[in-house]
Each structure stands twice: as structure tokens, then as C-alpha cells.
Specification:
The structure holds 3 protein chains of 3 kinds. Chain A is α/β, with parallel strands linked by helices. Helices cover 30% and strands 22% of the residues of chain A. In chain B, helix 1 packs across helix 5.
Chain lengths: 424, 326, 168
Amino acid sequence: MRVRIRNGRLIDPARKRDVRGDLCIAGGRIVAAGRAPAEFTPDFDIDAAGQCVIPGLVDLCARFREPGAEHKARIRSESIAAAAGGVTTVCCPPDTSPVIDTPAVVELIHRRGADCGLTRILALGAVTQGLQGERLAEMRALQLAGCPAVSNARAPIPNSEVLRRALEYAANFNLTVFLFAEDHYLRNSGVVHEGAVSTRLGLPPVPATAETVAVSRALQLAEQTGARVHFCRLSAEASVGMIAAAKASGLPVSADVAICNLHLTEDDVDGYNSDCHLIPPLRTAADRDALRRAVADGTIDAVCSDHQPHDDDAKASPFSLTEPGASTIEHLLPLMLRLAQDGAMDLRTAIDAVTRRPALVLGNGGGTLQVGATADVAVMHAGETITVSRRSLRSAGKNTPFSGWRLPGKISHTLLAGKVVFSA
Amino acid sequence: MTAHDIQLDEHGRLKHFLTTEGFSRELILEILDHAESFAGVGDRAVKKVPLLRGKTVVNLFFEPSTRTRTTFELAAKRLSADVLNISIEASAASKGESLQDTLRTLEAMHCDMFVVRHANSGAAHFIARQVAPHVRVINGGDGRHAHPTQALLDMFTIRRHKRDFESLSVAIVGDIAHSRVARSEIHALRSLGVPDLRVVGPKTLIPAQVERLGVRVFHELDEGLARADVVIMLRLQRERMRGALLPSEQEYFQCYGLTAQRLKAAKPDVIVMHPGPINRGIEIDSRVADGDHSVILQQVSHGIAVRMAVMAMTMGSLAQPAERGH
Amino acid sequence: MIIQHEEIERLIAGMGDQAQKLLAATGRRDPLMIGIHTGGVWVAERLHRLLGVENPLGELNIAFYRDDFSRIGMHPTVAPSRLPFDIEGRDLILVDDVLYTGRTVRAAMNEIFDWGRPASICLVVLVERGGRELPVQADVVGRSLSLKNGEHVKLTGPEPLALEIRKT
């Protein structure tokens, strides 16, 4: 099918400047960006006058709850939410049930995702069997089954020797390791950042060192093994400095941050707001600002939604007994645009951090509007406002911490490989 | 202060009693004054006043506690209320479902007030947000967050011995990090205008940024007790040794245990308090616990009057705030 | 309208005489006197002196026995009740400033019976006005007033005492 998206402002992070014009798609790929070739006759026209045309978002972490937690959400419901949010590629971490440590589970998820056909789901394989942190998973088999990377999800790997060998083995096959670095013992069953708020509310605390100690350890093992490590969900200012230094010294490391940690702080937990019960925890304003700067200057490569839809019961308990996680995928783009609006970074960088840069981490060449690229595209009114409300969430999980927020960015169309998967 | 202070109704009256945080000095004094009125009820032939007659008070205890439960029970009965005692074993599996279902079942039985004790911080707030508009919630202790009735009965005790809060030095000694009593007392003492409020304990038992609550931190007991008017000793729980927070009870007693010798650093008319139950020889020496400075037994007897005051005030807020007649 | 303190002292003296005659006629001896806070206590203090009662004066705060708790809630506190004697089997003189609906006296009697079982209660009031809502009557009255709709009588004190009639 031939599609022409007319008269939009094309914001392609791969290019230096925005271009006003048409985006032409044929055979699922971009065939022209800027000026439509004279002989191009589209089967389908999208009027993008007054709108921005950007690459579809690449989300490095979202949980669609299949297999194993279908009472919370389904691949179908979350794909609908993703498409409505302009997200065209999603990485699913391996902490499903069963864990993604066999090709069978990879194939299950990929097939269900393809059957829905609304967003591209990529399963991340497990680093250790059952995510137990002891024996290596069959990473090669997982890679061949289609996993672009392996990960420990949020499971700790307390044994440093195991972590060293896991990184070494992944490096053997040129597999990137998506590592959530946290010291299990320093976390000590904490639920909020160790600071003034945890003290006042009397909630078990998680010190920043639970992250920084683990990041430091992993960086040194990455150096020793030559592995490509992507640090997931940084939350502390001190981690940023370590990543910057590692990059400066030439280590092939990358990092991402969850969108919540760029907007919210420990103060948002006040009143025992279980929608703000998150892992990693929301930290101080200084941490949030340092994370924003790191995204702006590229120290942190990508921003992900860390989407975790929950059933209502999971959040309806005294705080420590609730399950952590927020339902965010639909609002990833508006929340990034809000960062640009607040002056934390310019618009191109905000879009880059959720398109081209995460695609680079995955190494799949996506996230751009270049000629020849797969036509994953989002069309949006950057100036229009949406109001976040629990009821209007398409995700099965209504656990949003942004209820009532007015955000810029109303998506009108999302295309996946040239096919319209969402239109407002 | 929580984002929406659900304790007070729109007229500023006490609706639920969840935490001393954010209370004005006037409100605390009002509660203490009401408690004074209730203090004499135990001396009568009929130890009751009819204020809560026909009301049902439920002690909803998710954590075992004999002494707190019995004082709440006595307080409710002295107000002529009917009392139900429900002990729920908290298990990982039960979590939120049974809590909400339990509440709904009890509300269907027309219960008017819940006294809640729970192992998790924020539990009383959670329950207060769930109950029907006419139901009242009193926090009997939630996790390490708050134990407001204990704090108030301690304020009642202090007021009876020391006239003026605004000139006092008060030291709270022990496991501040895990203490809901400490947090509630800090808020109450600050609201009452205590100018010199100290917490004393080893670094492993002092929570992060506790100075932001308005206290000075001491790691040396003698410095912490110097010229103190009131010393509040906290109970040390056995688990602290297991969590790598302390090596042994003996070393804790050596460094932070209150003995007669240590007490000499305080003012000559210092009063010694303890929310109980006491661990003799661990946080406090028997001779001090039973000695002339100790007001520990009085604290226990004040608990009923203070709890009566809190129950009567919260239930009374159901009324219209009309012109108070004749 | 205001009744000044000289007139009130005169009224109280008259009440004292009436009370003495009543006690003698009914054979009640060695009575205990109880004033209802706050105005009743002021009146009772004077009667207590006039009659030369040796037993200490009792004070009753009926706040917890009012029948309007569910309508009005907790009142600001007045001093707590203090009955420094055992009332079991004793003759009581209950003193209040104004007898109106009768609910205060009912509450006071309920409270008294929670302290013990008296042999008798004799009710002495400074002012009795119309508007009784319960079957309560005073044994000794200083002055009967008949008030119009919307008028209220209030005793101010403790020194000097004055009765004010106000429109609400």
C-alpha cells in the first residue's frame, strides 16, 4: 500500500534540520522524505498540515503481561495502548511467567505480537535461567529465536562471578546485556528513596547506593569482559557521573531512564500514593534534574516508558504491600514533549531520546525517517493538549501517576511498517 | 503533612485520628483538656459516660497487642460504646483483598468506628480513605509511621508534670528509625512549641534527614541527656540484632542504656518516660524504671482518658457545627 | 433588661430561706450541695455560705450527659465534675441558674446516679422560665420570668452576678 503523509513538519533525528513536506511510503518502507516524487500516486493520504511527523517511538521496556499475568493486561490491550501512544517498537523484559529463557516463550510472544499487528514486540531473553542469578541461560538459542538482547529484568545477580561470566558469555555472541543494576542487600525490601520523605512517612527506604554500588560493580566487570552493557532505569545523580566517565574512557555502555523519574520525585509519594510506588524509586529533585541533563547531553541514551499495567487490587493496599509500577506507555511522547516545553531539552532531543537513540541501543537501524527505513511513523499535533485521566486510558492498567496532568502532544496517526495502526 | 489532610473535616474538626503531623497547638491542647475531663470517670461508682451509647467501636488489629487493645477497649466501654475485637493475622497472601473485604463486611454490620493497628506504614490512612463518610478511623499504630494516641498521652503526662512546653528540653532515646512513637511525639512536641528537641541513638538507628523534622541528632547519650527536662526511652526490639544494625543488647545497654548514673546529666527534676513495654536492662535500668523520676506507670493510666477524648471528639464531629446552645 | 447583683443577692437570700424551710419540713439532714457548671456553681457558692453547709461544695459538668451530642458534638471544656464526697444514701441540693427545657437537670440527675444513689434531690434554681420540655420542676425558685419568643436569660459572673435578658 502506498501512503502519502502530506504537508507535515518532518522531525527526523537522523537529519540536522526539520523539513516541511511530504513523507511517502511504499511496501512498508519510506521512499521519500520532503518532496513527493511526481509519479508517486498514493492509495491513502494523510493530511498532516499543522502537525509533526516523527519516527514511531522505540520503547526499550514495557510489560504486556503475557504470558503469566493476564489478569493485569494482555498483549492485545497493551498493543492498542502503545499504538495510541505512537509507540511502534516495544521491548518486553524477560520476567514473564514462564521466564523468557527458552525459544518457545520468545516465539509465543513474537507470534502473539505479530497476530495483533499493532506494534512490534521484541522479547528480551533472560541472562540466567529462571532469572535466578545462578546458571547462565541459553543466550545463543534466545538470540537465534529473535531476542535483540538479554536482560536480568529486575532480578538481582548477587554473585559477582556469575555476573562476570554472564557478561563474558553474552559478549561471546555480541549480545547486549540490558542490566538493571541494583544491590539486593542494600535495597533491603525498601519501597521509597532513603531520605526526608521515607523518614517522615515511616516507609522502608532504598538508599541511592543500592544503585550506585551495583552500577560501579557492573562497569568494572563490563570493562574486564568487553561486554556491551545497557544500564536500565537509572535513578540517581551519582550513577550519571559514572556512566559519563565510562563512556569517556571508551567503554561500549549505554543507559536509559524511565519517564517517571524525569518528572516525579519522592515528594509525589506523599499521602502514601501507591501509583508512585516504583522500582527504581522516585528520588530527589536534584536526581531528577541530573537525569534530565543527562538525557539532554546524551549521557543517558534513551528514555523508556517502563510500562507496568496493574489490576486495581495490586495498588489498593497499604503502600509497602502494593505492587510497584506505573501504566505509562500511552503518555510517553506527551511526557517527553512536556520536558521540551519545560526547557529541559529541545524538541529534537526529546524526540531523539525515544526514537533514534533507543534504536541505536537495539542496533536495528530504526527510529528514523530516512529513505529506505521501515515506515514506522507517528503524526501528532505538538501544540494540542491532552488531559491524562484514568478512565480514558486504553491500557488495561489504570495505574497512572499523572492523573489530571495536561500534556502537549495529541497523536493523530500511527503507522507500523506503512500500515495505519491508530488514528484518532 | 499529606497532600489531602483527611483527618480534619471542612470545619477543621477532628474527623479521623491518624497522625499528630500537622496538628496545631490549639488542637493538641483541646484534646488534652478533654482528656482531663475524662480522667475522673474511672473514680466513679459507674465508670461510664453515655457519649458513645449505641455506637459500635471495632478494634481492628492486624498486629498483636494486648495493652493497646485493652486500653482502647476500656476507653470505648467507658464511653458506653459496644466493642468488637478483631485480630487478623497478616499473611502475604491476604494483602489488600481481605483488608477491603473485611472493611465492607464490618460496615455492613453498622460499625461506627475502627481502631486500627497494622504492621505497614500508611495502613490507617488507607483504611480512612476506604470507609463510608460517617465512619471514623483511629490509628492505633501503623508500621513505623505513627502512634498518635501514645504521643498524646505522653503530652498529657508531660503537661501534668511540667507546666510549660515552650521552655523544655526533651530527649527521645533509642531506635528512632523504626519507631512510630518517636515520629508522632516529634510532631506533637514541635507543634506544642518545644524549643529543644533531641533524638539520641547510634547512626544505624537514626533515619535519614531526621533533622528536617525539627530535631537535633546526638550519638552520645551523655550529650543528648545534658540538662534535659524530659527523657523518653524507646523500646529496643530483638530483630535489630538480626538486621546488622546492632551487635548485641549488652553493647547497646553500655552505650545507650539509661542508668541512674547517666540520668545525672539531665536536670534534677527530669521525668523519665517510656511507651512500654519496658525491656529492663536493655534500654533502661530497673532502678530508673521504678525510681523517683519515672512516670511510666502514670503514662499507662493516662492512656484511657486520652483515648476517650479522641474517640469522643472524632465521633462528635458527625454533628452539625451549629450554634452551641444553652 | 438586666437584673443587677444587689437584686440577685436578695433573691438568693430568699432562696436560702425557702430551702431551709423545705429541708426542715421533709426531715432532710446534713445535705450535700451540688452546683451545675457554670452559672449554677456561682449561685451554689453563695447558697453554700448562706446555709452554712459544712460539707464541701460539689460541681457538676454535665457535658457528657447532654442529649444533644449527636447533634452538636463535643462542647468546649468547662472544668471537670468534682464530687468530693460519697453521695450514697445522702440528701442532695442541686443548684442551677436557669431552669428552661429541663434537659440540663435530666442530664445532671443521670450523672449523679452514675456516682451513686442519693436518698433525695431537692432542685433549687435562681430563675425559672417557661418552655419546659420534660417533666421537671424546681423545689425552690428565686424568680419566675415569662419571656417572649426569641428571648433568652443568661447569668453573668462570677463577680458581680447579673441576669441579662437578650434577644437571640
